Amino acid sequence: MLLIPCPNCGSRDETEFHYGGQAHVAYPENPTELNDREWAEFLFYRDNTKGAFAERWLHSTGCRQWFNMLRDTVTYDIQAVYAMGTPRPATANPAASESGTASLAAPSTSPDALSVDVPIGARKQPQLIEQPASATAPSTTAPEGATK
């Protein structure tokens, strides 16, 4: 569990906070001039940085104030906590050049595991196994030792 340092209340348990997404996302100057694709990119497309990442957090059960946090997405180390509207501080640990999610686990060897390299249409579809009618029919007798 993370211990998050609230700038107003001090260090508190992560269960008191709510994640608010990527920090420093600028609102479009003229949102009415955006087409549907540009508007969708503003609303839903966010960086997926491996390494230092600026995030917004809300201390929902404490002071109820928003703040920004610079956190390493691989190690979960909190590098800085700073007020909303303040520029992102420089860090000693810059973000890694790779983007994506980090996993230290061994790759899955399951044949049903989804792979990033496989196009969606080429993924293995689950197979239905038909069972004999006797296996799916409800039993009319109670199990041994059961009472009615």
Report on the architecture of this protein.
This protein is mainly beta. 9% of the residues lie in helices and 22% in strands. The protein is built from two helices and six strands, in the order βββαβββα. The strands form two sheets. A four-stranded antiparallel β-sheet has the order 3-4-5-6, with no helix packed on it. It has a two-stranded antiparallel ribbon with strand order 1-2. The longest helix is centred in the N-terminal third of the chain and has 9 residues, at 36-44. It is extended, with a radius of gyration of 25 Å.
Essential attributes:
single chain, 148 residues, mainly beta, 4-stranded antiparallel beta sheet, two-stranded antiparallel ribbon, 2 helices, 6 strands, 9% helix
What does the secondary structure layout of this molecule look like, with pairings?
Elements: E1 3-6, E2 10-13, E3 18-22, H1 36-44, E4 52-58, E5 66-72, E6 78-82, H2 133-136
Antiparallel strand pairs: 1-2, 3-4, 4-5, 5-6
